[in-house]
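re: that chain from earlier
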Amino acid sequence: MIPFEDFEQQWLEEVRAGEPSTTELGHRFAEKILRDWHEIDASSSEIILCDGAGDGGIDAAIFIKEDLAEGVEGDTWILVQSKYGTAYSGGETISVEAQKLFATLEGKRDSLSSMSKELVDRLRNFIANSGPKDRLEYVLATNRKLSPGEQEYLQNIKVIGRSKFDWLFDVDAVSIETIYNKLAEEDAFGPEKINVKLRTNVASAGDILLIGAAKLTDIYKFMNDYRIMSGDLDLLYEKNVRKFLGSKKKVNKGIEQTIESHPERFGLYNNGITIVVEDVIRSSTDDSEVTLVNPFIVNGCQTTRSIWSVLQRRLNSGGSAPTPEQTAWETRLGNAVAVTKIVVVGTEGDELLTETTRYTNSQNTVGEKDFIALEKDFRSWAPAFNSRFGVFLEIQRGAWEARKAYQRQHPLALPKYAESANAFELLKAYAAGWLCEPGIAYGKNPPFAPGGTLFNKIVNEPEFGVESLYAAHLMQKLATGYGFGRGAKQPTRGQTRYLFIMVAVDLVKDILINSGSGYGSASISKAIIALDKGGLLNEIGEAALQLVDDYLTDGNEDCLFNESEFNKLKDLNAFLKSDKLGKGDEFSPLLRTQMSVTKKSFRKSAPIAKMRQVISDYN
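^ sequence. v structure.
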């Protein structure tokens, strides 16, 4: 693994490009942190960037709306304070910026920019109308992870925030170093060992398995000790395919309600937790204490984070005179236990760790997109993809930044990559084009993560593999070349990347159909690669581009704005994110008409004979 300093320099290259202003630096830093850490982008959330001097202590705000279909209960606002480089000077910065934030939210600051004023009006309305499932999260983004002392400052801000806004308010901290640490954990165990004690009564069941029970208070202490040692509690879940879903998920609410109302029954209702470790060191003086070497919780993520959430709130909020109710609850909490399984995988335990993670999470249907890196297929596809196409396939967040830093550090090292492709984004492109799912690709992330419906559908296709991924990459690259996506200069292209890909792939499919060739998914992928090699893929791109621009231009005869379903919704964003978009004549008949006309015109004007020949030669 490259040194953090080299990774940091490479990570910041995109942020620093083009001599941005101080305000723009903060915005870019916040946006990249959100993208790389919180997995938030404009396709799934509303992101608001605030002006510098009048930002009111908020550099970026993200609104995540309740989505019951995805199991997300309640609305969430995330407020980011971006402290890039020398803008951060420790605990004093945390205190000063938090004071600004609180004053802003309480209406005590008048010198706000117009953007910030509009945002604050929305936030104050949100606070006034918030319910028990809503959240207001304050996130501090820095270069380096916070020290234990600085974490205490942030926890004090949490206490103050909750005194003002009750349980609605929470805090978090992210950093470039946190992202680096996650990348360093890509192997089963990192180079630096973390040894954490856990009080639990365990019995051996063979050489690799220990089974027992631990009190919830001891699990909470174990987690807190890990957080202090590592600087990031989330690293404890790095090998978990499900990660913490927050109190927005129903299952977490149920766990928390059990701890709050009937903690002594917790062990009866809960399946327990599974921890994989490199080694277990038994205490020579205390049979109920073990030291876990490089622990990861691979099952029970929601359980332990719910334990953390409730006990942090009930036991670590201060107060020297507990109420009788609090005292009674703490007494019952002393009898609360969870079943613990500790699996010793050793220093070379990657396969056992992966299989333990997979099978202990077999009931979980939604995984985080980071954990594509745990999927056996992607672990084998990545090196084959890299070798065959000369493009770096990123299956772990931050891996491309690390690779670029390594290449800069070792200029003669081979292979040397000039471009990359993100596996998660390729799955979305494939779904949009090959499966005709542009709306879901644009609007949702969970279906494409391991265990998600579209993830399973795609990777279980018999012929899906490196050629499919590369063809999806070529489609993404084509869309990027025409300026589709965030920051698009053409208003017709800001929200239509996946619509463009759907149209382009459909044109390729039409060539195959009218050539009498097979037109299954694998055939389409091969045809796209062949057209690219033959320098003809742009012919497809130009035709698809013309259609999308025409369709998104108000006033054209067959434009989106004349679709009857759009006129019912009156919401462009919702229309383009619909799972019905492009699938039939009921939802978007004018789009289907445009596609039909374009295909007929394309057959007459494009170099079809040459296209058929390069496709045939490739096959």
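The mean pLDDT is 85.
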